[in-house]
Amino acid sequence: MKKTVNKLSRFHIQLMLVILALPLAAIGQEVGSMERLVSPELADDNTVTFRIKAPKAEKVVLSGNWMPMVGEGMAMTRKTVALTKGENGVWSTTVGPLEPELYGYTFVVDDVNTLDTANLMVARDGTFRTENVLYIPGKASELYWVKTGSKGTVHQVWYESPTLDLTRRMYVYTPPGYADSNENYPVLYLLHGGGGDEEAWPTLGVANHILDNLINSGKAKPMIVVMTNGNPDQAAALTVSPKLEPSTQPAGGMANMMFEKSLVNDVIPYIESHYKVKPNKENRALTGLSMGGLQTMNTTFENPELFDYIGVMSMGFADLSRFGIEVDHSKRGEQIEALKAADPELYWIACGTDDFLYQSVVDMRNELDKHDFDYTYRESTGGHTWSNWRIYLSEFAPMLFK
Question: What is the pTM of this model?
Fold first, then answer.
């Protein structure tokens, strides 16, 4: 009787395994027959095909940051391209050819912004949007991608800011070979724009890739790059920051000079006491875009002896009243003269001809010219975009610490 029970048990077990295996096999066959959705698909001629499966959607369009803006003033929106519905509910469109660059894009499905789930490359553009990233290889974008060679390290660093009464986060890039070197290094302080945070330059700006490639090719000196959070009312990016009371200052305190004070009193001392840093102004550089450009001007006008290399991107002597910000211009002439007397090695200004702040740069240059202030001007095509700011960094960094 005991042997019979054992035989029946083995039989039942084998039968159960067969039954369980049937649906698993069917699922496996179905999965194997499914084709993976490819999007974006880059062709040899740099045309790009985008696809998304949305069988119940009535309308799907593509929005990419290479597309022109339409409308006027605050009502301006990005032009879009319609997708066509095909088999199995897959919508698609082909655009281009596109020039070599890093681009951002999203789908808009029945008026809802939607990420391309077939594309794992995603970047957050501050508080404005989250987009997929599209890389078009070529000479103009060769600095933006990881290449064979030594790599620097990007550190997330929390530090105390008594000036702002916050524990804050910044990103610090150390160049290839830093950990094993006994050398000290110069420092570039790199500031983001309004709506961004300390994650902007390492992600959208791919600053670490640009610096790695420039340093490895011998085009730029090995340097430490400090990427701070320029919002004085934030401890860190909103994705990780402790909950704070919203700022009562216009535009989050963009022009209240508190970040600038913290940069000088908290950030620089921390970097120079925790990293292998060369001291003195000839080993310090400061640059920033948009809001970061304003903060660069404010910091260097208030502290003319602190930096020998200064870069202002997409910002000038702007009327910021539209943002509720009133800037005191009464000391401008005196500040220009003080900075002129400090004789920085490089004062570099860069702006696109389609930038909405272009006129502010014209006004700034006219004012500097009145004081015979020595500066270098870089004018490009394009507007207030990362496509320009990545280029500006790739041109500014090789001019430093020579």
Answer: 0.84
Local confidence pLDDT in tens for the 402 residues of the chain: 444 444 444 444 443 443 344 444 343 444 443 468 999 999 999 999 999 999 999 999 999 989 887 766 556 678 899 999 998 999 999 999 999 999 999 999 999 999 999 999 998 877 667 899 999 999 989 999 898 899 999 999 999 999 999 999 999 999 999 999 999 999 999 999 998 999 999 999 999 999 999 999 999 999 999 999 999 989 999 888 765 565 454 445 555 789 999 999 999 999 999 999 999 999 999 999 999 999 999 999 999 999 999 999 999 998 766 656 666 677 889 999 999 999 999 999 999 999 999 999 999 999 999 999 999 999 999 999 999 999 999 999 999 998
CB 58 within 8 A of CB 17: no
Rounded to whole angstroms, the Cα distance separating 360 from 389 reads 17
How far is it, in rounded angstroms, from Cα 213 to Cα 247? 39
Pair 103, 125: CB distance under 8 Å: no
Q: Is beta strand 69-70 parallel, antiparallel or unpaired with respect to 77-78? A: antiparallel
Amino acid at 99: E
Tokens of 178: 């830093």
3-state secondary structure (DSSP) of residue 78: strand
Inter-residue contact 202 to 227 (CB < 8 Å): yes
**Beta-strand pair 376-380/346-352:** parallel
Q: How far from 384 is each of 291, 315, 358, CA to CA, in Å?
A: 12, 10, 9
Interacting residues of 40 by C-beta distance below 8 A, sequence separation 6+: 48, 49, 50, 105, 116, 119, 132, 134
Cross-sheet strand order for the sheet of 376-380: 153-161, 166-174, 224-227, 187-191, 284-289, 309-313, 346-352, 376-380
Alpha-carbon distance 44 to 202, whole Å? 29
CB 227 within 8 A of CB 328: no
The tokens describing 86, both together, are 């095909």
Which residue in 311, 271, 285, 138 sits closest to 221, CA to CA? 285
Per-residue DSSP letter, 338: H
